[in-house]
Each structure stands twice: as C-alpha cells, then as structure tokens.
Specification:
3 domains, 10% strand, Rossmann fold, disordered C terminus, alpha/beta, ABC transporter transmembrane region fold, four-stranded antiparallel sheet, six-stranded mixed sheet
Length: 579
C-alpha cells in the first residue's frame, strides 16, 4: 500500500480539507445533545416556549452548517480518491506495458484485468471512505465519551467500559477477515479467467461439444468463490449484532445509573437524555466504523494486489546503447543467431537449442517446421519479446540487448500469428504502423498487402469502422490489414509470423511477390507451415523440436534435410513443385 501512496501527492490539500470539514461536522453534531438537555432542563421545565423555539432554531442552524460541512468534505474526498485512482490506474497500465512477455505469461491476462478494474475501484472506494470517516468516527466516539465525562464522570464510566469491548469486536473481525478477502479476490481472478477463456474460445467449445463440461467447471469455481464469500460475509455480519448487543447493554446500564443519579439530585433529566444521545451517537459511529474497517480491509487487500504487480521487475531491461548505423542506405538489417537457446520461465525443457545461422541485409528468410517446433519462439527473439537464455542474437551487427528497445522495435514490422485489429477505423489501425503516413502511403501499403480491392469496396474506404478484434472482417482480410499495418512504417526488418495462413495460394504468391518488389530492400522473415510460401526464400531454416536441422536454399534442403523433404512431400503431389 505504501507504494501507492505516492500517487496522492498531488492531492495534499484535499486530503487535509476533506477530513477537516468532516471533523467540523462532527463537532456540531456533538453539541446537539447539550442543546437538547438545555431544552428539557430550561425550556420544558420552566414552560418557556420562547426558549424552546429559540433552541429549535439553534438545532436547525447546527444541522444546516453540518450539512454544508459534510457536502464540502465529500467533494474534497471524492476529488482526491478519484484522482488518486486515475493516477494508479495509469501507472499500472504503463507498468504492464513495460513488462516482458515472460511476466505477462506468468501473471495472466485475467488477473491483470481484475487488478486494473475491480481492485482499483475497491481502492478508490476505500480511499474515499478513509478520508471522510476514518477520523470522524473515532472523533465522535471519544468526543461523546469526553462530553459524557463533563456531564457526570460516574455515569460516564459505563462509556469507558463499553468502548474497549466494542473495539475488541471490531478489530478482531477485521484481523480475521483481511486475509480472507485476499483469498476472495484470488478466487475472482480464477472465475474471470475461466469466463474469458470460454468467451474467446467459444467456437472451439461448441465445435467439440464441450458446453456442459465447461459450464460444470465454471459452476464449480463460481460455487467455491460463493462459499468463501458467504463464509467471510457471515463473520463480517456478526459485527453489527454484537455491537448492537453491547451498546444496548451499555444503554440499559446508563438508564439505570442515570435514574439513580437523578434521584440523588446529582444530574438532571436533561443530562440523562444527553448521555443517552451520546450513547446513541457512539452506537451509530461504531457501526459506521465497523463497516468502514471492512471496506478498508478490502481496499488494503486490493491495494496490495495492485502493488504486487507494480513491484514486478521487467525482465527486459532498457540500455543506454545507441542504434547502429549499419546498412542505412540499403535499409535492410543483417541478423545473426550465434548458438542461441531459449527456455521459458518455469518450463521443463528448452524451446530452442543451439540455433546458429546468419542473414545478410535485404535477404528473405523462411522459417518452417512442425507445430511446436519453435518457429514463433525464434522470431520473437528479434524484437526482444523474449530474451534468449543462451548464446546471442545480433541485429545490424549489434547484440539486441545493446539496442534501446524502442529503437530496436522501431526498425521492425511484426505481423503476429493472431491477426489483431483494434476498435476504430481502417485508417487508424494502419496508422499504428506509421503515425504520420499519408493516404497515398496507406493505399500503397494496402496494395502491397493485397488488401486494396476489398478496402476500396467498403462504403467508407479508409474510414470504414473496425469492430473490436476486427470481427467485422474475415480471417484473410484481417491478416492482410495487419500486414499492411506493418508495411506502413517501412520497416528495415519485416517479420511475418504465419500471417498468410488464411490466404489462398494465389493471394499468398502475389503478396510475397509484392513484398519482394518493395524498393527499400528490407530483410524479411517468413514463418510458415506451407513449403510453397518459403520456397523461393534466399535462406530457409528448418526447425524440429527446437533444433535447426537444416539451413539452406530449397534445393539444398531437398537433398540434405530429411525433415524438410518430408514436409514438402506431405504438402505437394509427387512430381509437383516440391519434388
């Protein structure tokens, strides 16, 4: 929680004025029982109607002033809590953006989304309540006890005995519930993760008829979360009845003791009523304090979860190096893999083992292999989505670890396996690649990506709306748009990670031909499971179970690499192109 308090520094004034106005409101509230005692002992006892009316106006004035103070306090508390939550959310989002793929894989999307939404909202509510009530409730409780002592110290001893018992109940429940609320948030993460998994994979679930099983698994997780919440809620729910019992017992004792003191002539009837009002105020404030502590407990648990994410150190550290000036004229970048190995965090075995090959600037490289052979892992090392655990990857003659990450990724255009578009328009999606690209440059990128025809066919052209994830486009159209997005930045190194899998062979051929004809001589990595897509590459790397079992041209590999030969034979008819 301490980690997050730094985001309150811009709201010091609000953090002071909010509680201050609440204390002013509480001060006026503590005067009400004294006014009522005066009404009873003076106005009613002496049948002085004028005095009673005057005191009624005093009560109204105290109420109005208290209301103004309360509204002012709420304004400052809301301003500070909302601003604080906005800063924390922005800082958390920025921190997540700086995390490497290893940390994102380990934490998982569901828990990160929960912490950015539900957890921060809970922290915001806790901060609001803290600023308004954390000082007010204890102030009223101890203020009422102090006022009671000014009336009659012997009767007020009942207050001194009741308050510690009430505090023991409140803090006992708080200490028990705090770790349980953290467990509840963890269960919520798991339930949200299951829901997200089913929503994103709904087609697969239905295709294999797994609806009933997935529903049963979700129900089991949801029921476990419900049972835990009910269990914690029952213990938390004991707080109110137990505090009511203690307060009512204290009230009975106070009435009994007050009656005896009135008979003795030590105090008046109005003062007994004032003591009862103070006891009532203590009851209300302790109930508020109990609920406040429950909410603060939840907020602290959520704040610690947010802080846990903020404390994660990115595995990809920025460097102070300079981008190399190599091959600026030819635009392309050379690439070298020198005995490269990769083992993912918590993985039992290496995903890549001792990969060695080099690529000249401007060459086209094909990466091929079976499912799970490490093709995507290999190209993910180039933009430093992951860092190799052995060997060294060099781009432009310089190790990728020595590149400033922004400069390194700024030289590349990456088209991932999953074609991902964002809500907006086609123009806005393309300008992710090149923010200052003109319409002519956007149309040129679309033409190269073989997407110009269907974009021209849209009613609004470049301004055609794009739904979340590009759901209003087919798989092939999404792939071509993501390729065009990468081309808009005129990258020196273009990575196509199985990005033409939804295209027919003719479109795929036209796409590769158009990319080859681009005038700025970029280096191209093509990851594909189609032998025809990489046949004419300057160099082909064949992967099998994380090892490079062949490096060379198409003809060289047909002669020397059994794995490549089997791939070609399985995809092409005997006597065809792949023979």
């Amino acid at each position: 929680m301490k980690r997050l308090l730094q985001y309150l520094t811009g709201y010091k004034k609000e953090c002071v004025l909010g509680p201050l106005f609440k204390l002013l409101e509480a001060s006026f509230e503590l005067l009400v029982p004294l006014v009522m005692a005066a009404v009873i002992d003076t106005g009613i006892k002496n049948r002085d109607q004028g005095y009673v009316v005057k005191m009624c106006f005093v009560l109204v004035a105290l109420g109005v002033i208290g209301l103004v103070c309360s509204i002012t306090a709420q304004y400052f508390a809301a301003k500070a809590s909302v601003g604080f939550a906005a800063k924390v959310r922005m800082a958390l989002f920025s921190h997540i953006q700086g995390l490497g793929f290893s940390e994102l894989d380990r934490e998982g999307a569901p828990t990160l989304i929960t912490r950015m939404t539900s957890d921060i909202n809970q922290v915001q509510n806790g901060m609001n309540l803290t600023l308004r009530l954390l000082l007010r409730s204890p102030f009223v409780v101890f203020g009422a006890m102090a006022m009671a002592f000014t009336i009659d110290w012997k009767a007020a001893l009942i207050f001194a005995g009741a308050i510690p018992l009430l505090a023991a109940v409140v803090f006992g429940v708080m200490l028990w519930t705090m770790p349980r609320y953290k467990q509840v948030q963890g269960g919520l993460d798991r339930v949200l993760g299951k829901a997200r998994e089913n929503l994103t994979g709904v087609r697969v679930v239905r295709a294999f008829g797994r609806e009933e099983r997935e529903t049963a698994e979700f129900e089991a997780g949801n029921n476990a979360l419900t049972r835990l919440q009910v269990h914690v809620g029952r213990v938390s729910g004991l707080m109110n009845p137990v505090t009511y019992i203690l307060i009512n017992l204290a009230t009975l004792a106070l009435v009994w003791a007050g009656g005896l003191r009135v008979e003795e002539g030590v105090i008046t009837q109005g003062q007994v009523v004032a003591l009862l009002n103070y006891m009532g105020q203590i009851l209300v404030e302790l109930i508020k304090l109990a609920n406040l502590i429950i909410n603060i407990t939840k907020a602290l648990a959520c704040a610690n979860r947010v802080a846990d994410v903020m404390d994660i150190e990115p595995s990809l550290q920025q460097t102070g190096g300079q981008a190399p000036g190599e091959e600026k004229e030819g635009r392309g970048l050379s690439v070298e893999f020198d005995d490269v190995s990769l083992c993912y965090a918590s993985a039992g075995a290496e995903s890549l083992s001792h990969i060695t090959f080099s690529v000249k600037a401007g060459e086209t490289v094909g990466i091929i292999g079976g499912t799970g052979s490490g093709k995507t892992s290999l190209v993910n090392l180039l933009p430093r989505f992951y860092d190799c655990t052995g060997g060294q990857v060099r781009v432009g003659g310089q190790p990728v670890r020595d590149w400033p990450i922004e400069d390194l990724r700024g030289q590349m255009g990456v088209v991932p396996q999953r074609a991902q578009l964002f809500t907006g328009t086609i123009r806005e999606n393309l300008q992710w690649g090149g923010g200052g690209a003109s319409d002519a440059a956007l149309w040129q990128a679309l033409e190269t990506a073989q997407a110009k025809d269907f974009v021209e066919g849209k009613p609004k052209g470049l301004d055609e709306p794009v739904a979340q994830g590009g759901r209003n486009f087919s798989g092939g159209q999404r792939q071509r748009l993501t390729i065009a997005r990468a081309l808009c930045r005129r990258p020196r190194l273009l990575i196509l990670d199985d990005s033409a899998s939804a295209l027919d062979f003719a479109t795929d051929l036209r796409l590769r031909t158009a990319i080859k004809a681009l005038p700025y001589g970029q280096t191209v990595f093509i990851v594909s499971q189609r032998a025809s897509s990489i046949r004419y590459a300057d160099k082909i790397v064949v992967l099998d179970d994380g090892c490079a079992v062949g490096v060379g041209t198409h003809q060289e590999l047909l002669e020397s690499c059994e794995v490549y030969r089997e791939i070609c034979q399985s995809q092409m008819e005997k006597g065809g192109e792949g023979a």
